[in-house]
Amino acid sequence: MRYIAAVVLTLCSMIVSAEDWSRADKGRQLAVGALQFIDCAQTRYAMKHGSFKEQNPVLGSHPSLGRINNICAAAIVGHVFVSNALSPGWRAGFQYATIAIEGWVVIDHHRMGVTLGVLF
Question: Which of 39, 44, 95, 103 meets the CB 3.0–4.6 Å disulfide criterion with 117?
């Protein structure tokens, strides 16, 4: 669990130090990270409680909590790196698309009765 905290802190420091990023870029990236974090918390909860089956093929149908932590950390950090590599116009589109997808996933989890799991 400490690894997720380290990833979040790293993510925040990377966003703050992104000199060529606008305030809007940074705000969108924080929204992406927050939604990814909530998605991960819901996934952890779903695997610990109930008979939910994970739909993400990268995680597998019944991933371990360690696998969830590792994939989530990689996804959060990876999104920052990809966003940073894109030009500002593409970055905004990539971030908005991710916000839409992650937002839909979080809402869908909520509709299925999946709440936030305790991460720390």
Answer: 44
